[in-house]
């Protein structure tokens, strides 16, 4: 397998200003010799993160970025609140540096006050956490990473990248009873919304790549905000608005495994105070998907919070149209996250159009599902995972929508495994690359949970699911049985599995709700003001 067949080269990244690729001695746009592990669900991630932070000593380095942070969110029971854990680390001499999105107002279902409180608690303990609003209007910093470096003990170095924020709702497990510290979602999700998510743990040279992403943002000399109102609030709250210097970056950790990791990002092309590390933005997440999808032949397995935007799913649709044996499985939230006469249809219209395009291209080779827990409550799918032909696997903060591919800051990691998976079929795509252990095991772990086909991640899945056709059929059969049980009044034993066929309202109904001058002036189906849509391609 040639890595350049699946991964972007430095030139294809489209951002000559970043030092992310030039830091590699051979100039490659990826790092080899890593060990990547998928941590499925917040409970798994939080427990591991807690142990790692507690093991840190004076002069170790802890870096993190997040979209939202709730200082009282418990990682693993009382006394493990994230604000407390980070503050205690800072008090014992760990160098703690964080970048939180400043966010929009809490009244708009965002997290300005929560992020400010977490940052203030860390600052008071001797760390430094900045509220970063260096985004395009209407955009956000959506990257979710934690980097733990240990000078003199590089074998402990680890980076976490994925979809899990350090905040309420995220601490759930495979039972999907929901985080006891909950934020309200649509009423269908109940008082403790069940939450499905994935984070990647990286060990090896890729840790240095993720750290370099943080350093580029931290060292950006632009002011944290251009807004006079925000600057006034900074003065009132006496917020730290200038980043202290970081210690020099340590050498990358030694190789640890067989995984090649490529770090991909989205940065918008800001009109003023452009990013010095991406003056015209970066679209490597979009470009990475487009390149990998050109090689898709057997199965695209996708878990995504949104799956919106006809413009974004076009590359999926073209792959389905071109290769008549290619199948796509999508796992998405059954219900949009917010109720409301305007917000719910606004969330649906982009998805309905996207699914119409996919089904027009792939017909019955496209199946999309929601997930419910054993009590029948919908599970909010927040994961951002894609596996193509059991070779290319991506886990990150980015959703399949236009915001994530153009407008917000995002961070994703693609993993290619040098180790082949020799179970049948050994080469589902037929291109001679062969199924790879990491990508296949990630797909099977996720599918097994949704099918109730095992006890949890790490247990080898039935070999039948290795075959793309059989895996596609297994999802169809499981969802059909559970749908029929519900339609029959839930009589008799509940069939195994948690999948429900996704059935959104018909598009004309949604369009009638949205046929108001207010909607057409203010928003597009991707959730941004119309005047802020980017004209630039990927």
What order do the helices and strands come in, and which of them pair?
Blueprint: H1 3-6, H2 10-13, E1 31-40, H3 42-54, E2 61-66, H4 82-91, E3 95-101, H5 112-124, E4 128-132, E5 145-149, E6 158-162, E7 195-196, E8 198-203, H6 206-218, H7 228-236, E9 259-267, E10 282-283, H8 284-293, E11 299-303, H9 310-322, E12 327-331, H10 343-362, E13 366-371, E14 380-381, E15 385-388, E16 392-396, H11 402-407, E17 410-417, H12 437-451, H13 468-487, E18 499-501, H14 507-514, H15 517-522
Parallel strand pairs: 2-3, 3-4, 7-14, 11-12, 12-13
Antiparallel strand pairs: 1-8, 1-9, 2-5, 5-6, 6-8, 9-10, 9-17, 11-15, 13-18, 15-16, 16-17
Helix pairs in contact: 4-5, 8-9, 9-10, 10-14
The computed structural class is alpha+beta
Give the low-confidence spans: 106-110, 517-525, 527-535
Task: Name the beta content range.
Answer: 15-25%
Q: Helical stretch count?
A: 15
Average pLDDT confidence is 89
Taking all Cα atoms into account, the compactness measure Rg is: 22 Å
Instruction: Kindly state the percentage of residues in helix.
Output: 25-40%
Head-to-tail CA distance between termini: 26 Å
Which overall shape is indicated by the principal axes computed on the Cα atoms? globular
The profile of the biggest β sheet is: 16 strands, mixed
Number of strands: 18
